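Aim 2, interim progress: modelling of the zinc ion-bound target.
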Amino acid sequence: MATTRDVLAMLGELVTLTALAEESKQSFKVRAYENAGLGLESDGRDITELSMTELTKIKGVGKATASKVREFVETGKVAKLVDLRQQFPPAVVELSRIPGMGPKTLAVVRSHLGVENVDQLKAAIEAEQLRRLPGLGATSEAKIAKAIDRLGMSGKDRRTPIADALPLAERLVSDLQALPAVVDAQCCGSLRRMSETIGDIDITVSSESPVEVMNHVVSHDEVSELVVNGDTKTSFLTAGGLQVDVRVVTPDQFGAATLYFTGSKQHNIALRQRAMDRNMLLNEYGLIDTSNEHLAPADRPIIASRTESEIYDALGLEYVPAPMREATGEVEAAGGEGLPELVERSHIKGDLHYHTDRSGDGRSSVADMVKVAADQGYDYLAITDHGVDLAINGSTAEEMLEHRELISQIQDGYPDMTILWGCELNIGAKGGLDYDDDFRALFDYTVASVHSHFDQSPKEQTKRLVAAIADPTVNSIGHLTGRYIGRRPGIEIEVDIVLEALAHFDVALEINGALQRLDAASDVVRKAVDRGIKMVINTDSHHTSELGRMEYGVLTAQRGWTPKELVINTWDRDRFLKWTRHRRT
Ligand code: DGT
Ligand code: CA
Ligand code: CA
Ligand code: ZN
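Predicted structure of the complex, ligand included:
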């Protein structure tokens, strides 16, 4: 039985593969599927229950998409997609992810050189064959070579960006949780720890009927190739070439198993060492009492195994949230001075980087964007559409003033949520910002971000950021480096100098929850936290379906050891509003 999420994933794959088939991401068909996906995503109903007529009434959904949705719900596949998957096998889709290998270049490289995977592409580059192809040259050849190196895409150390793995893993976990035979299911491994790139997906299932669970897994529509097909463990490859390991354990072992398979390996080693020091043994089945040497191994008492909390507790440790399990001092802290009081999703009182269709790339109206924010129970919200300097997507001063009027009208309908008229300012090549100083000072709140000039030297980038931070109209710095994980490296900066400036001018550092970004990265976040720099966790939403990113931002904050106290959007409204104004007066 397909779910709404399965349908949306099917459409997402259709977008990717159609762009390859049409040799353009902008083709009419690609955009049609994209828009249909957005319409269906924000509809809110169970899509699988809707008829053709009901489907085509949804904004953006045409006949062609609606019939594919029905086909998928009724038969479990879509003929068109089966056909596209044959034309574009996983290894080819992976090629298309390399910066510089757009759909057109990919088609040329395949047809002229017969290149079908990363290893063949590398060989072709070494033989200097790419530079002789129509539309390419030595420069594009070098660019692609560098991208392959940087992404570590060759061989077995190939890694998948979290944005490509997490939605799939969440879908699998919730499908498993829906099975009557399943007591619980948990995503483990690097994905649960919120690593930026993922080797494979690890899922642990709690059930008394492993065979039933495994039978369900092997027939899942994500399975493209089975690697391991056992009674308690299944490994398969998805159409995208990603490996998924699913293991089934009994409910009384679930905590020990999730602890073990979440890792990291180094964290596990530190826990095991601690267990040994206390005459205990820790493995994937439980924490075992080894103090009585006369007992046979099978007779040794199990101290804890059902939940992770019980195991940490029995080891004399505070519970360590998964994103912190990287063996960077968390075990010592959990057994000593204590872990920081980490920020949690329930602490968040507002979103402060938020777009509407005032931005060229915003996809939902102000009214709709405000409504979904209010539905989250937020106390405040900053609407930060793009400043004028962003080509195509920005707004002029006049447009911004009209926008302020519209926002203030909508505010009347939301007495419990303060809506700030804000702006996402663009940090220019030398640190200049949009509009003139007086106009900028009118905004209730601003986030300043880099959207251009990615290739300057680290010194120039640092100067540029520091100049923006020093500007008294700037409240926060958005997505610090502008990276897209696994796709585009961010700007290179001298981190310590930038952090020094943030601390000095009391400007907040954003943790952007978009999975492609997760920027500032958790290691930078941890450095910022050490200096007491204020943090802000945002979704950078451009559509009503994107608010869920707050969770990913919070997990990234936890990975950087961020305490609640430093996060300005956990503060109550008065304290937060007072802080936004302190540099303006
Ligand atoms: P990845 O998949 O490369 O992104 O990273 P992980 O951390 O998900 O690693 P993976 O999938 O090889 O194994 C999942 C977890 O299982 C890992 O974090 C810790 C545990 N684990 C795997 N192999 C070992 C091992 O040899 N010793 C210990 N102590 N733990 C292991
Ligand atoms: Ca893994
Ligand atoms: Ca694994
Ligand atoms: Zn933005």
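The first strand starts at residue 160 and ends at 161. The domain at 345-582 is CATH 3.20.20.140 (TIM Barrel).
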